[in-house]
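task queued by scheduler; priority normal; single chain, no ligands, no partner chains; default sampling; output format set to C-alpha cells
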Amino acid sequence: MKHLIFCLPFLFFGTTVSAQTAAEIIEKHLVARGGSALDSVRNTKMDIEVVLKNAPGMTFKATYSTVMMQSHRIDMSVPNLYDAVICFSGDQGWGVLKKDGKSDLTLMDSAAVQELKYQTEILGPLYQYQQKGYKVEYLGREQVNETETFNIKVEAANNTTYNCFIDTQTFMEVKRAVIAPSNGQMISVEFYYSDLKPVLGVIMPFKIEMSNRKGTTYFIFQTIELNTNLDPKLFEVPSGQ
C-alpha cells in the first residue's frame, strides 16, 4: 500500500526567458504556476482514478486529503479486494485494511512517518525551498520527450533528492525524478505531469504518470479542491479497531 501513495506531490506556467540560475528559474516557475495565489493554499482534497498500466482492467478510486506541511491521508477502494486508509499527521501514522469482513489497524513507526512527510508538500519541493532549508542546483538543459527543459536538482529533507524538469518555454514542471528512502532502502520514481488546469488561481496537473521498477501507474484527477473544509478528525487514529 505504501508504494501506491508514493506520489504526489504537483506544479506550473509562464513565458520564454533566458534563465541561467536555479533561483531565477524557480522564481519564474512559481510565478507561472500562480504567483501570490500559491501563498493562500492551506489544504487540498483530490478525488482520483488510479489506473495500473501493467494490470489491464485494474482501476480503482482514491481520495487524497492533505494539510500543508502537516497531515496527509489517502482512502482507497479496490473492487473485490480491499478498502484501505493510510494516514499520518505530525509524527504519528497509521493504516487500516478492510478485507473479507475484517478491519485491521496498523501503527507506523517513526521512520515510516518521516519517509512519507514529503507528501504534505502540496505545492512541491520548489515552493519555499529556502524556508525549508533545501539546496537547489541548476544542472543545465535536458530533453524530456519532445520538450526542452531546465533540470533543477533539489536536495530536500530525510535524504530525499528531486530533479525537477521545467519547460524552458512555459516554465511548467513536466517531469520530476525522485530518489527517496522507503522501508530502509532507496527507491527511484519518476512523475510526468499533464492536463494542467487552474484551481483558485493555482495551476495543477490533472493527470500524473508515475513510473518505477514495478511499472507505470496513471493518476487521473476527477476533482481537485483547495482550501476546503477538512475535519481534523480525519487524521486521528481511529478507535474501536
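post-processing summary
- The chain is about 10% helix and 50% strand.
- The domain at 3-223 is CATH 2.50.20 (outer membrane lipoprotein receptor (LolB), chain A).
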